[in-house]
Design brief:
The structure is a homodimer of 826-residue chains. The first copy, chain A, has 826 residues and is of the alpha/beta class. The first copy, chain A, has 3 domains: 374 residues, Rossmann fold (3-Layer(aba) Sandwich), CATH 3.40.50.970; 194 residues, 3-Layer(aba) Sandwich (Rossmann fold), CATH 3.40.50.970; 170 residues, Rossmann fold (3-Layer(aba) Sandwich). Chain A contains 28 helices and 22 strands. The N and C termini of chain A lie far apart (69 Å). Chains A and B meet through α9, α10, α17, α18 and α23 of A and α9, α10, α16, α17 and α22 of B. Chains A, B: Keywords: Lyase, Thiamine pyrophosphate.
Chain lengths: 826, 826
Amino acid sequence: MSGAVIVILSDINRRASSEGDNGRQNVGRSEAMSSRSPQFAMMDRYWRAANYVSVGQIYLMDNPLLREPLRAEHVKPRLLGHWGTTPGLNFIYVHLNRLIRERDLDMLFICGPGHGGPAMVANTWLEGTYSEIYPDIGRDSEGMKELFKQFSFPGGVPSHAAPETPGSIHEGGELGYALVHGFGAAFDNPDLVVACVVGDGEAETGPLAATWHSSKFLNPRTDGAVLPILHLNGYKIANPTLMGRMNDDDLRSLFIGYGYEPFFVEGSDPEPMHALMAATLDQVMERIRDIQTTARTTTGSTGLPRWPMIVLRSPKGWTGPKEVDGKKVEGFWRAHQVPVSNARDDDAHRQILEEWMRSYGPDELFDTEGRLLPEIAALAPEGTKRMGASPYANGGLLKKDLALPDWKSFAVDVPAPGGRTAEGTHILGAYLRDVVRLNAASRNFRLMGPDETSSNRLDAVFEATDRVWMEGIEPYDVHLAPEGRVMEVLSEHLCQGWLEGYLLTGRHGLFSCYEAFIHIVDSMVNQHAKWLKTSAELSWREPIASLNYLLTSHVWRQDHNGFSHQDPGFSDFVANKKADTVRLYFPPDANTLLWVADHCLRTWNRINVITAGKQPAPQWLTAQEAEGHCKAGAGIWEWASTCPADEEPDLVMACAGDVPTMETLAAVDLLVADSPGLRIRVVNVVDLMTLQARSEHPHGFSDETFDALFTKDRPVIFAYHGYPYLIHRLTYRRANHDNIHVHGFREEGTTTTPFDMAVMNQIDRFHLTLAALRWLPQLSQRSAQFSATLKKKLEEHKAYVYEHGEDMPEIRNWTWRREAGGAGVR
Amino acid sequence: MSGAVIVILSDINRRASSEGDNGRQNVGRSEAMSSRSPQFAMMDRYWRAANYVSVGQIYLMDNPLLREPLRAEHVKPRLLGHWGTTPGLNFIYVHLNRLIRERDLDMLFICGPGHGGPAMVANTWLEGTYSEIYPDIGRDSEGMKELFKQFSFPGGVPSHAAPETPGSIHEGGELGYALVHGFGAAFDNPDLVVACVVGDGEAETGPLAATWHSSKFLNPRTDGAVLPILHLNGYKIANPTLMGRMNDDDLRSLFIGYGYEPFFVEGSDPEPMHALMAATLDQVMERIRDIQTTARTTTGSTGLPRWPMIVLRSPKGWTGPKEVDGKKVEGFWRAHQVPVSNARDDDAHRQILEEWMRSYGPDELFDTEGRLLPEIAALAPEGTKRMGASPYANGGLLKKDLALPDWKSFAVDVPAPGGRTAEGTHILGAYLRDVVRLNAASRNFRLMGPDETSSNRLDAVFEATDRVWMEGIEPYDVHLAPEGRVMEVLSEHLCQGWLEGYLLTGRHGLFSCYEAFIHIVDSMVNQHAKWLKTSAELSWREPIASLNYLLTSHVWRQDHNGFSHQDPGFSDFVANKKADTVRLYFPPDANTLLWVADHCLRTWNRINVITAGKQPAPQWLTAQEAEGHCKAGAGIWEWASTCPADEEPDLVMACAGDVPTMETLAAVDLLVADSPGLRIRVVNVVDLMTLQARSEHPHGFSDETFDALFTKDRPVIFAYHGYPYLIHRLTYRRANHDNIHVHGFREEGTTTTPFDMAVMNQIDRFHLTLAALRWLPQLSQRSAQFSATLKKKLEEHKAYVYEHGEDMPEIRNWTWRREAGGAGVR
């Protein structure tokens, strides 16, 4: 699109913002749009009602309708609300209500600005959804009183949109994710319009700044629309905002650069603002329908559309006190939280509050019972068209189970343990390809990843689909298409946020990521975990599909990337979250990976973290064995042990993770060769949460089961994929915990060969064997020579890899040979 | 700035990019700038040398100068390099070298693109810095052989810029932070020009997208310049890039919107590209000097300048193989990593490699000894003007200790333990104000925070300085100025990244943040910790000032924000990092907070995390007591105990954190009232790392010291600020670990009063007391009635707060009264 076209498209708004009167001249093109129309007068009353109910939540615990003079005991003792952004949100909400009614829209409202809670609660209460969900908070004066009291009150609701808020899909709390959730919601929901309000505070965050590019992934043929409304009220807690102080030319240039057609709505006088907002919303909806109609009635590509967005400038704390104690409040950051403090004890402040609340004219808004007057209430949409009642905001209502292929049909044939190698994620790719195929018509499954689907060897999915790509496609490009099911962008934030939005509106997905860099989204996962925990306690919120991670390119195989790419700590982070929400899986080979992935895609309301390598690795279990093992979560590998499972061993060699499992088995080989009579039990852990006490986690083994695996008093050498502390933490309540010696990642790494990396962190076969010798003192006495041999091996290894750049042949070519004459009991 | 002016400013480049020939027509304005000038021919040879040395690193382990035909054994067995971005980086580097020489610049090079390691290593080797730092890698054929071999090789260097790379300030590994580090480096370095290359992959990340706004914080009078070079080579690992596929109009609009004046350099033919790049660099340097000169010779504000930036479009894998096996490589993503695979075993591939390397004409570049020919080498700057030798890239060389005030002069007077209340961060604010004042002339200290300096009650700093603000300032604004020392933006990523860049170039700072949201920068902290760990192992890297956090508005006081704002897990995350790098401090009151903050500002190469509340809270220790207690890291509070410190107690009540400490003391009050003879020892922990075994952490107590505090066998009720597991993890090697019962945050929270929050998580006085009764069975028998009383209190409490919205008076007004007749031994 050339610059000239952009100028024409934006012309009306350019005038609107440059004619000195905040563009009020460019409206009034029809009777309905006159700024003095009865419709706008009624909308203004609705807006005042919302503002009144918002202020009431912040301040009052009694006398909600001000039917008597405001006294100290009516005011909450602790004032903890947030006013600043609220009137602007109320303004937007009432205007979107008009749009929904007039055009019969399915609209989802996303409330990005921090602490917009009062507005969301006020509007959903006014439209009736709040009382339907929470019948104890009725649509009358008693309900209003409860509504007011519960806000920022013990056992009540927080000052931002939360799971408890009808119509919300988790835009409150930590800022930055409103718009990315909005796009996630719009993908594959062609009938949906997501109205997404972005605050100018939030607009300063990194994730939000990148999210604007998401329109380059939105397909007008098969996806819904996102209407971003950048709400510039100019201030954060105690500061101007960067965008609030940018001029309209720069803002216009910025959003044109991002790919949008910006429209400006600016002012502080309500009457012309109503007219301007309504006219602008009509215009942008026309634009959206034009884009969609063109795309949906044309065959072939219609290119990347230039979607509209709105820049709304309105004063912070709009319609609130202009000044308090001689200091500017409205239109300044002092309006951010509680504009009039201490209103319980300070008579003058309480008077300001009362005048402020009465300025909305509550008697013109609510009847004697405290009900919104019917002619005002009639402005709201009805039924599920109300934004608070949108099923899209309670995605579990819309969720359909995925059609899943039989994972066993992708299983690797494993004639004997270690008898062949395979690339786990490559095998999984074929399974995922069929997941894509089976759900192609439903369009309810997407794969996310930061440009790593191929690098992580899930390529087979490209036999069934492509990467989403709306920008230009060159003849030599491969696997790019507007309809793709794979979403790749070099931003873990966008992958995470899109997927969250997609899941929250009732769909399914998987995020594959380099293990080390998933920490980029720690805080987003944190917020999602909190959302799931709280949602699960709300009977009206239906379960949504689980948030599934495949972490690959993991810590033990960062051969060229080195230390910066080596971090297995995401599991530790996730393990802090509410137990019932979290699952950590470490499948040791391809068939177990298949079972785990299939299982995760069938679950709901969870965060499933699967860690599995992409490199060729030995395979241990047949499909049938994998199924039994994974269902148990952990178990004795009798075939790898040197004594029957029901006999007490001298030593337990435990492992979790693909590389640790291989090294453990190789260590068993070494130990057996040295001490053929040693009674070694091998325990493999797939589901890490089995280690935790049952009182701590629903997957936790009973003490009996745990002790049956790990014994009560035998040494356990535990080779673990991640930081060793997590194993200690999960097992510290177990009888045998003092004897569990964990080898894991210890923040030692560099550019190296695969085995050398293990050696650095002492989870290699030689160190594991030395550990076994150490904790079996009678053996270490006998095996002084063996220890010396192992240490010599370590030196040889180091010299070899530093010279040749690859592992010693005996390491590289090692295979599990116990079948061929070892002491295995299989 | 109006749109018209922008068009004029950008006019030359608009033509350059729109005239169909990649703008080559707009150069050649002087003889020196002719595309055929001898200077450009020589620069082209330098570039070819850098490309040759880059390819050699990826492929060769012998025959570096190709003085004999390339044979299989010359090629590395594992090819793990990255070619795609490298030739473009080499191109930029040689052009910046010219600029430095001609203008005598102090320039820092920041290499944002992923896997630009070969280019950085090649250029610093060519200019001589590499061999000065690593004398075993000389500037001859033997050195070249070693240089080649070490790349992506065991014990060698990774494929991205790393601590080992001369001239780097930690732009490698995880992507997104190049530009924010660049701005951090430029603040308060008025003579520095930071040339910052941003890859088009990295440009998709959230942090990078927000960072462009950093120019709104750059003061041309007192800061240096940042020259962003957005390097569009069009592809990531297996995908086009979003910006690579944007047209120049949209790109221009985007960067004008961000506040820059963009210049375009586009093409693939080296000859005209040299001329265009040189002319453009001259032009942007003139622009930078104009901006700086204007600002530095004018009094009063000169406003927010429009800084120049460059968009460089050049092919991915430029000058590499056009095609391999019939597939497009140059100018496509197949050039990303190793364009010609399997070159050791595949003769045809090895031939392509050899032809490719010989295409650079090594014999025209290096003499028979493998030394760069002197006439080529002469193009590089000299001494510390070489970008690999810039002292700014080894900030410890420039670091000066802060001038620090006497912290005791800010201490709270504490006549008796609990005898008064104070707001810890408010007290600290006064200390920080004087830190600002004492270092005002040095301009080497900044405070960062996401709009929370006031909210976190550090307001006193505004008596000494302001917030940095370069955009417009309104008459009613407060504490905004271009020269401010406080940096606020609603992006934890920017705060973190600016501070990292500031520290890495030899300065000091403190980042104050809401505790819950510091997780936003987990992955950045992770990378910084890895940088510090590796840097500390390099003798040539001088220590830098520590990265200091003040985490406040913490989990126990999110009264209105609720669950989304409640997460104390950053400590867990940080505790996974290399022990010697990390310190976790939980000062229980204001005087201990002062000591800890003062201490942290004196340290280097560490990550110090201070967690402390901002709310009014009881004060426990005098300045002198605080000093002794903090120096020890943890200790017995004999005055709060009911038996002398040297006598064995029945029970240890331990605490870490301000709220847990208060609740522990209140629990002691309750226990004493019920069981006056009970021998209770109170242990307070300030430095959490003292809990860890000395073998694990340098601050760890010896077992003797630990046992002397916590006993070997008495029950320990440990009230901890964060997730309880961390205490278990840190103490699991201690003799008494089975008896340590930790109460901490358990992912249970909502909107509540302060005390109710503690109750939910059972770290309140009632639950702590109940725990003590439980673990002293003889007591719990005797005290069935007492337990019932406590449980009734909990019920009363709940009813009270749900009705009144504030804590029961007996909780709210509780003070430590042991002085007035308790059993305390002080």
